[in-house]
Amino acid sequence: MYDALTVREHMEFITRAYQVEAGEEEVESLLGRFELTDKQDKLGSELSKGMMQKVSICCALVIRPRVILLDEPMVGLDPGAIKELKSVILDLRGRGCTILISTHMLEMVKELWDVTFVMNQGHIVGTYPRETVASEDLEELYFSVTGRTDPYGSGQRETDDGAAEGNG
Asked: Which residues pair with 122 in a beta bridge?
């Protein structure tokens, strides 16, 4: 996000950068879907983390992508925006868009995935189409593939590099 650009200017910047025409109705629709209509004249520096996340999502969608990468897209979003984003993702998938979502919030994507890639310490350690693991929960799949079990039940917490640290 650029501090000196408004919400609307961000969307205009992205459409120009990608050389995509987006009509006023399309922009208004995206702003409305993510409850940004009344924020469209606010500068990037005036937005909360959640609002910035919504603007980023709108900017990604305004170019009508055929492939989209969403990195932790639900972080900072309110429940209404999460529900709307899930709806958008399902709409995109229905139109044949390839969507890659990187997230630690496995519960949030349980109804969205077709194929999951399990990563451990920065490496893909398994690829699983939904139909091969349909009855298994994503969290259970992750723990069974990585060999990790109940990392928080023992009073130990795993750090980003895979090491354990005590909780107190």
From this structure: none
- Give me the numbers of helices (H) and strands (E) for the chain, helices first please: 5, 6
As given in the structure block, the two tokens for residue 107 are: 């519960």
Distances (CA, A) of 150 to 108, 156, 164: 19, 9, 12
Q: Please name which of 141, 139, 140 lies closest in space to residue 128, comparing C-alpha atoms.
A: 141
Q: Which regions of the chain are under pLDDT 50?
A: 154-159, 164-168
Q: Which residue in the block uniquely carries the two structure tokens 């990563």?
A: 119
Q: How many CA atoms lie within 13 A of 116 on its CB side?
A: 26
pLDDT at 83: 95
Helix (H, G, I), strand (E, B), or coil: what is residue 1? coil
Report the amino acid identity of residue 100: L
Beta carbons within 8 Å of 65's beta carbon, 6+ residues apart:
92, 97
Instruction: Please choose, from the candidates 95, 106, 101, the residue with its C-alpha nearest in 3D space to the C-alpha of residue 139.
Output: 106
pTM of the model: 0.80
Assigned token pair, 163: 């090491």
| Amino acid 152: pLDDT | 57
Helix, coil or strand: residue 100: strand
